Known about the structure:
Helix content is 32%, strand content 21%.
Amino acid sequence: MHLLIPAAGMGRRMGSHRNKLLLTLLGDPLLAWTLRAAEASVQITWIGIIAQPEDKSEFEDILATVAPKKPVCLLPGGVTRQESVYNGLQGLPLGAVRVLIHDGARCLATPDLFDRCAEALRPHREYEPPSGIVAAVPVKDTIKVVDGAGLIKDTPDRSHLWAAQTPQGFPVPLLKDCHEKGLRAGWEVTDDAALFEKCGLAVRVVPGEETNLKVTTPVDLALAEFILKQRPHPQPLSQVGRGG
Ligand code: CTP
Ligand code: MG
């Protein structure tokens, strides 16, 4: 299974002067945690990291520290996440059949989540129509639809609402077609499932992880650190092998 990691953002909402994926959690950059989970996944066999040119050398340092045994490529980022994924899709090896897309900023995703998503993406019955998958969790809050003036317009039934995460997975040729179509039509979306949906293709949810948060604001960084500290082996790579 091929994996693309969009990592070419700016992290504006983090209020940092550089890509938030270079900020550290327990001593290691966010991207190192994401990469380590992907490396530990049994199903992932190839990793493409989508990066801005200015982050390339620091990303290469991270790669040198994590030292993945799987092949890893750095691919050029775009202005938007959508454009970054588009570029990433062009950088997949010829013959890639299925791909998982996972935001670099979701650095708490576990290897097990990657494996379950990869497994769910495989067609399980002959003649089953191809579909995409999205890791998602039922929402806990009551969600309101609010207009530009701050007035609530609707309260959708919560039992039908899921918060979409990544990994999201798709058959490669279909996702490429959806991106091409989206580009021509000027669709602006914040995840790949939305392109699939707009093209009338089926997308199924796969149970995600409550702790699989997207590190977006400084509070998320503090929460992520707290969550990592609860895990059995939260030791940062930067300290592995230093003795003690
Ligand atoms: N991303 C990307 N290319 C872009 C924009 C975003 O590859 N042009 C990636 C980010 O690096 C991140 C993921 O898409 O891993 C999800 O995006 P988001 O959380 O919005 O990150 P940023 O765009 O960096 O943050 P912000 O929107 O606050 O600037
Ligand atoms: Mg963004």
